[in-house]
Amino acid sequence: MRNIILIGFMGVGKGTVARTYARIFDAYAIDTDDLIESLENKKIKKIFAESGEAYFRALEKKTAEWLETSVQNAVISTGGGFYKQPNLNQIGTVVLLHSGFDAILKRILSHPNAERKLAKRPLFADREEARALYEVREPAYKEVADIVIDVENKDPETIARELHTLIGEKE
Ligand code: S3P
Q1: Which atom of ligand 1 is found nearest the CA of 33?
Q2: How far apart are the CA of 23 and the centre of ligand 1, in A?
Q3: How far is the CA of 75 from the centre of ligand 1 (A)?
Q4: Ligand 1 binding pocket includes 17 (Cβ within 6 Å)
Q5: For site-directed labelling of 69, which of 30, 128, 139, 152 has its Cα 20 to 30 A away?
Q6: Residue 121 Cβ < 6 Å to ligand 1
Q7: What is the pLDDT along the chain (171 residues), one digit of tens a residue?
Q8: Which of 33, 61, 96 is the best mutation target for the ligand 1 pocket, counting ligand atoms within 8 Å of the beta carbon and taking the most?
Q9: In which region does residue 26 sit, left (phi positive, over 0), alpha (psi from -120 to 50) or beta (all else)?
Q10: Could you tell me how many helices (H) and strands (E) the chain has, helices first?
Q11: Residues 6+ away with beta carbon under 8 Å from 38
Q12: What is the distance in A from the centroid of ligand 1 to the CA of 36?
């Protein structure tokens, strides 16, 4: 299986969809933020606070290079800014999970751990700034995606099955 690489805005559900897909279709789910946290032995929030965003983006680059050379048969969820990596299409089939900003906010706020979900994302600290970032990012995501899935009001299993069908049609 060619890797599947999920891109999209913070909180859209990339990690959940990756894990659901892996469970149903017997693949490995990995997450670029988790890889970066284990590489640095620090939470993303701490990396941003102590070393800044540019340092974090360099870690994303290092991770993208490692994924390309060393990972197969995986469904990979990524941080919302990972789509900028130039070798994205060499890592796997790029799939954008698309949702409106308000639905994303609602999804985060309805989670029992909503405060923690927001707190761990430095670029979500200010909601209006996050909304502005969303407006810039969404068209850029579409440019690099091989497949776009509208995930609004769908449960993770429905999305995973839709993804599987669309991937099958591509191959
Ligand atoms: C970021 C998204 C985050 C994380 C970091 C930067 C971004 O990941 O990588 O805080 O630039 O959009 P999620 O998309 O999982 O929140």
Answers
A1: 9
A2: 24
A3: 17
A4: no
A5: 139
A6: yes
A7: 899 999 999 999 999 999 999 999 999 999 999 999 999 999 999 999 999 999 999 999 999 999 999 999 999 999 999 999 999 999 999 999 999 999 999 999 998 998 888 888 989 889 999 999 999 999 999 999 999 999 999 999 999 999 999 998 876
A8: 33
A9: left
A10: 9, 5
A11: none
A12: 11
- pLDDT of 119: 87
Both tokens of 31, joined, read: 């997450």
Residues recorded for the chain: 171
C-beta 8 within 6 A of ligand 1: no
Chain position carrying tokens 């906010």: 105
- pLDDT of 1 reads 85
Check if 13 has its Cβ closer than 6 Å to any atom of ligand 1: no
Say whether pTM exceeds 0.85: yes
- Whether the CB-CB separation of 105 and 127 falls below 8 Å is answered with yes
- Contacting residues for 90 by C-beta, under 8 A, at least 6 apart: 68
Q: Burial code of 117-141, b = ≥16 C-beta within 10 A, e = fewer?
A: bbeebeebeeeeebeebbeebbeeb
| Among the listed residues 80, 12, 16, the one whose alpha carbon sits nearest the alpha carbon of residue 48 | 80
| Residue 74, strand partner residues | 28
